[in-house]
Amino acid sequence: MKTPMGWHIVKKSGIDSYVGGLTNGSDSLWFDYGRYDVDLSNESRAWYRWSEDTVNGFPAIISLPDKPGQGEVTMKIPGLTDGNRLTIWASNVKDRETVLQIFKSAIFAGSDSSRNPPLGDSKHFRRTNVDGKALFVADCESCHQLRGRVEGPKIQDLIAAKDANWLYRFFTDEDLRATDSSHQRLKRAFNNTECIKIKNMTEPDAVALFYYIKSQTR
User: Fold this and answer.
1) 3-state secondary structure of 125
2) Which residue, 32, 58, 162, 181, is the most exposed by fewest CB within 10 angstroms?
3) Does 70 score more than 90 pLDDT?
4) Is residue 26 within 8 Å of residue 94, measured between CB atoms?
C-alpha cells in the first residue's frame, strides 16, 4: 500500500495471518491478510453505507460510517488469487479521503492496475443499520452455508450477478420469484424447494444481508 508523506508502519504479530498497521499520528488503519475472516459486524446498529468496488482487479466490499469521524471505515477483499483475503479498517477517521486512497493502493500478485477506478464518498453507497451476519444466521444458515451447501445451493452463487435491490425484491415480490429464471432453475435442481420468506424484510435488511454474503465470497 502507498501512503502520503508522514505515515509510518506499525508492526504487530499475527498467528494465522499477516497483520499490521499504518499511522500518521492522527489517523491509523489496521490490516489482516490471511485465510481467515475478520468479523466487523455492525453490532452497534449504527448507520453505515456499503458499496462494491474493484481494487486492482479484485472485487472489494467497502463500508463507511454515515457520520464522518465516527465508527469504522472498512474494506474487505475476500477472494485473492492465493486463497487469502484482506481486511483493512480504521476507526474514527479524520481524513477519510486519504484513508480510502490508501485502501485503494493495495497491490497483490496478479493485480490488474488497469482495473482500479477511483473511490471516494461520491461513489454510490447503500445505507443500513442492520447486522448482516446476525440476519444470515437467523434466516439463511439452516439451508445455505457460506462455504458450500446444506439443503440449498451455495448462497454466493445466487447473488453473484445480483444487487441489494434484487435481494430485497426477492423476499418481498412474489412476481419476481415466479419469473426469475435463475431462481426457478435452482428451485428445480433442489427438488422444488422454495426459499423461505423473511417476514417484514426492509431495504436496510436486504443491504446488510447482501453485503455480508458478498464479503464472505471466495
Assistant:
1) coil
2) 181
3) no
4) yes
